[in-house]
Amino acid sequence: MSLLSPPAEEQSQTRTGSSRLDAVLRFRELGLVLALVALVAVTTSANSRFLSQQSIRDVLLATAITLLLACGMTMVVLTKGIDLSVGSVLGLSAFGTATLLSEYPSLPWPVAGLVGVALGAACGAVNGVVIAYGRVPALVATLGTLYVFRGIVYFWAGGSRVNAGDLPRDFLDFGTGRLLGVPYLFLIGVLVVLVVGQYLGRYRGGRDLYAIGSSEDAARLAGVAINRRLLQVYVASGALAGLGGVLHAARYGTVDASAGSGLELNVVAAVVVGGVAIFGGSGTVYGAALGALLLTVINNALPVLGIDQFWQRAIVGALIIAAIALDRLVAVRVGRSLRRKDSHVG
Amino acid sequence: MDRSPNGVVEPVVALRDVSKSFGAVRALRGARLELFTGEAHALVGENGAGKSTLIKVLAGVHRPDGGTVELDGQAVEFGGPGDARDAGIAVIYQEPTLFPDLSVAENIFVGRQPRGRFGRIDRAAMRAAAEALFARLGVRVDPDRPARGMSIADQQLVEIAKAISTDARVLVMDEPTAALSGVEVERLFAVARSLRDGGAAILFISHRFNEVEALCQRVTVMRDGAHISTDPLSDVTVDQIVRRMVGRDLGALFPERTAEPGEVVLEVDGLSNEGVYKDVSFDVRAGEIVALAGLVGAGRSEVARAIFGVDARTSGAVRVAGRSLPAGRPRAAMAAGIALVPEDRREQGLLLDLSITRNATLPRTRSLATLGFLTGASERRSAREWTGRLQTKYGSLGDPAGTLSGGNQQKVVLAKWLSTQPKVLIVDEPTRGIDIGTKAEVHRLMAQLAAEGVAVLMISSELPEVLGMADRVLVMREGELVADLPRAEATEEAVMFAATGQQEAA
């Protein structure tokens, strides 16, 4: 062999330890937890009622629906996509579910809930087909359906709205009910986070999403069914937004055509702050959940701290930019150290 | 072996009269190939001869326009790479295709991860399986590390582990050795031989005939997308094969040169970058070809990048024709007449999605513009002239550069820089992954440039190229310049000795 190549001895290097990938991600989640703790500590020292049961419950309730959507969004963003239609899908599902229950009060509400989820899944399927098979960029496709789905709700509602009084009592009870002091809605959110977390971490389908987002070409060569996976992901995101709509209806009781407007950006923010790379391939749903929680706590803490409404949005914005800057920094650092270290272990 | 009733050995896989076109480029026309169980088959041909396309048909990536793929005598249609894999065809591609965000173990087993209860991925089993594969290959790679940042050689090892993990009946290797060291190549061949002897059919693509001879029993030559010949390797000589590949008489691989170096053009003085290289000093004269040799990772490319100003340097000076260059300013380096043809043409040399025209004229968009506006006509005229001088093969100048074969991509990179009429040309691995015909052309071109008074600095890991082309050989070891050998003293042993710091190189 004429190639000038390193002698074999160079292959012995120090062991690099267990997964560095996980270490980075854990570092990120730890950082979010620390930020949360610090924020809560500062706010509580300003006003001790911030840690009252009622206040905590408010935060959990406000986080619950964002959690669901953040799970769907995480899956989508992992594949290098984005789903901007979730707010509209939530509105459609909330209005559909509430209308169904007000017109057929004898219908068991879980059945109506399933209809709402199915409605969301159908919307997601539209997104998925356009993106996976129509090869339309996700940003454009879901921006389009954001308007289309919202338009459908407005057309359907025609200016009317469903009032809490029109809805079955047990449905509303579910929306405000608690188990051991924890709202049902939050429990559902946590359950979904855990299920999606398991799926993404430990199932082939979930790992395929990371693979697609990491390198679509490599995924194609590895025989990953890219189109099918993308379709599934958007259906899942739609279904979770549909579930979010059902919970929205149960929680507020009063639903008009604007339910969930603008929610998509909150969800994207939560996911990005939670460390899911916007260019796909890395991040966890746990990080996204922490991101959702952090944003809600910020929203609730700033008024307590006497900070102007205007600054709340500015602070969220700054946080998003800081999160992405941090990602870049970590990526550059890790990249450099990975390059420097030989991949061989000894 | 499988024998059909009339006693003839049946191929495991056969491609029959396969044709495939991409736009106006006919990549394959009536290509044929038969692979037999227990046999390693070499596929050779110049770059652009259609080898890679043929493999992609075999791997289910491309659907043939005409002809059939047969498996055990049955015509099959692969819907995608997954189908081919399930049929027992594993492919090691020329360019590693890894997932940078996933761990090495997951890269190997994506879509096929070992599963435990409830269909959960069994990470411990996956890790153990990956370690077993690396043990079989005789290399140590950490299965937990992400693929991001791995050297090309390590990436290639992961690709190989991926391919052999499937226990394939057919193993296709598309130039798997380009980035590997001698030891690693030996181990790969040992594994390939044991797979072959265990009944697998192997298709091996390489430009290195010694490797072909070390592994293969049969050789197929392709040219211009068509089948030229298939023979037992023992029946043909390297000369015959090369003549069939090129289809014309091949001039000497290294042109005759009468060197008459002129003034010093490039001076590098005490160049250092902490932790990468230190105190590198040398000069290159007009009309001189100086080779920068050394092991992979000795810091050669980094020095080149610092000279061109892509990377920063911590100390030292670079002068062109006596004038000092500011650090970290490629534009200043270009203005001073330096051109850099980088090591990795796909990543650094080309914008793969842009047209050939755009790529070939990119450094000169200003001089080609009229009143600040680029007119397509002047770009096309210039691109046509320079790609023509380099005999580049393409469908249309408007095609994305990524659609060209490797050798032709390299020609476009060269065209782009030669059109700036540089005083100093730095080429980093100019002929890596390029077929012999193009290699000879690139060598001739470099000699011609030197004769025209260009100072050429050539980084190369191929000793014959270093020895055949250079007037002087500089050798780097672990970031230091350790030898400056004039042509007369530059022997294989002397260079290896300097590069490794020991008598017997690995």
From TrEMBL, chain A:
Membrane-protein topology: Multi-pass membrane protein
Main location: membrane
GO cellular component, one term: plasma membrane
Entry keyword set: Cell inner membrane, Cell membrane, Membrane, Transmembrane, Transmembrane helix, Transport
Molecular function via GO: transmembrane transporter activity
Cellular compartment(s): Cell membrane
Entry's transmembrane regions: 30-47, 59-78, 111-133, 139-158, 179-200, 231-253, 265-298, 310-331
Record-linked Pfam families: BPD_transp_2 (PF02653)
Record-linked InterPro entries: ABC_transp_permease (IPR001851)
Keyword Calcium among UniProt keywords: no
Subunit structure, as described in the record: The complex is composed of two ATP-binding proteins (LsrA), two transmembrane proteins (LsrC and LsrD) and a solute-binding protein (LsrB).
Purpose of the protein: Part of the ABC transporter complex LsrABCD involved in autoinducer 2 (AI-2) import. Probably responsible for the translocation of the substrate across the membrane.
Name of the protein in its database record: Autoinducer 2 import system permease protein LsrC
Taxonomic source organism: Jiangella anatolica
